[in-house]
Amino acid sequence: MKQLTSLAVAVVVAFAATVNAEELKSGLKQGEAIGAFDVVKCAGEEADEVAIGEKLCYRCRNGARPQVMVFTRSSDKKVVKLVSELDAHVKKYEENQLRAFVSMLGDSRDAASDAVKKLAKTTKTEKIPYVVPAEFENGPDNYGLNPKAEVTVIIANESKVVANFAVASAKDLDIEAVLAGVKKMLN
Prior knowledge:
Elements: H1 2-23, E1 39-44, E2 55-56, H2 58-62, E3 67-72, H3 77-92, E4 99-104, H4 109-123, E5 129-133, E6 151-157, E7 160-167, H5 175-186
Parallel strand pairs: 3-4, 4-5
Antiparallel strand pairs: 1-2, 1-5, 3-6, 6-7
């Protein structure tokens, strides 16, 4: 009986791990083209000459340049650290024309807007625009973001996905892996 109980527990754990791994898949896959999507700028970079409240497509504005798109539902300290590090990378790799922007997702446009403005104040970045996508609940439909992923980071160059990182909890965000993905793309 003890062996049967142990086997049952092992099967449940294996099934839960499989389901959990599937839930962490979020966003476009490596090699897929990144599509256009509208956002409203809420805060951030002033030098880009995009006014707060302006509707645009930052992905389009960035063109085929290397770019990092952060889709988040969280302002966790790991997200703050990632965005701060990305700001430093955008400055460091200016000659590579690296761009990055943060899209806040949420249950309501107003809540997402308030959260992304607060995140912008917390990070104190200079080169990162903070936006709310038109499809604020789960991000742009053409990106296939998983509603259970708290953070999805898409790294792209020449309008194609180079790397994708997604976590169910911002606390599990591997900042070093994301930054290594950015460096790899630029080399």
